[in-house]
Amino acid sequence: MASNNTPPDSPKSSGDATKNATGNADGLTPKQALTTRRGFVAGLLLVGGAAVAYSPQLAPTLWGRVESPANTLAYIADLDYWQRTDREIQVIAKARFDLDAELTNVPLTFSDWKGEEVPESNQEVIILLDPEQYVQRLYNNSQGQYMWLSMIGGRSSQPFHAPDICYDADGWQYNLSSKAIPLEDGGEVHGLWMEASKLFPGKEVNTEHIVFYFYLFPNQSRELKDGIVLFKLTSSRYGSSEETLGLHADFVRHLFKRAQAPGV
Amino acid sequence: MLILFGIYSNVPRLLVYKLVTHLLTRPARISLSHPLLLLIAGCLLLAACSNAAPTPQPTPTAAPLGGSCALSATANAEEAIIALLNAEGELVVAQDIDPLMRLWIEEGKVVDAKNTPDNADDDQMWDGKDAIRHRYVRTVFPGAPTLVNHGDEIITIDGDRAHVESTTTIGDEIAPAGDRWEMLNSDGCWYLASLTYNLETAP
After folding, report:
1. Fewest Cβ atoms closer than 10 Å to its Cβ: which of A74, A108, B24, B136?
2. pLDDT (tens digit per residue) in B78-102
3. Is B52 helix (H, G, I), strand (E, B) or coil?
4. Contact residues, chain A, for B31 at CB < 8 Å
5. Phi/psi of residue B173, each to 5°?
């Protein structure tokens, strides 16, 4: 066996192209090379193992934030924006509902629903609410049923007048309750449910509005500066309250897929 | 990376210091199977697996007492019911929503009779605790009442149910016999079950 006089821990410089008889570029004996290679593999395994073992603890430091478990669009949904309620939940959305994105990017077409933008024509509303984003859409389905989607975003409390207060001020009579909508991949999201009616001059029957709404926050700290979005659906009554709720639920399920306890 | 691991585990710093010193003083070729290196790597792995900084497990806590049981002890049902009504008024003034909601049953109702007690068609209802909470927060609290007093109570108790007619004073506004409360007793605690207000006829 050819040997060289190079000590094992004094390798030649990387520019040295001389090979020993075994073809080893580092000038090691086969035994030395085997030992070094074995050590390298053992060390690599240990480092790899350590990286796997420590990754959960290091992830926030290395990457700055904790990824959502679903690695998708997670928001906090609640019935109120002032204080947390028992209904606070984390929802996994199919579109972005935060003020760092354009709310107009929420799909206009999905499943059987086709929507169109209907900009708010009453400038007093915009002046009064002063929202950062205000999206108002009218969706229709093949059954001829319609659904208004209003998304109002802001970083102060000014844009968030409770819908029932506005209806009351406009002379509507209403009953308020809450409803839970089960989502496709599990969990349910709660919203306030308002059944409002008003007899308009010249009409013989009451006009009815059914409203389902909740608030969305980009994170659990729920600070105003991070932005809040009011998600509100309004339709006419289609059959019973339960049937109308079914229609609202169908709409919601196309935009939100799962609900789970916050922080899971 | 190894130093980072040292920071994030309970491995004594001396060990890390020794490794660094060793690496700096040794010639360039260090076998990764060096006993010291293997020892430290093993310690780091054990430290990681031992979950030195465990995620705190949620501690099971008893649900806060509700209804009259969340208030000072009373001698009898009538006192408990009056205490319940007084607490409702005080918590409205304090705008303390969570303890306020603990006075109510889940299926509670609030009805505005609109000063037409004989005509239910124009009634307005907040059905369930979520809606009642919403009414407090969005309708009652913004008025910032400094005094809410349910006086002149006429209490009728029938087993686990109680019925109270009262005159409510909210600030300067007095509603003589304008409120009707229903209470329910569950496990020895009295809860608010419904409130119908504006029962007095319009002047």
Report:
1. B24
2. 999 999 999 999 999 999 999 999 9
3. coil
4. 9, 35-36, 39
5. -90, 125
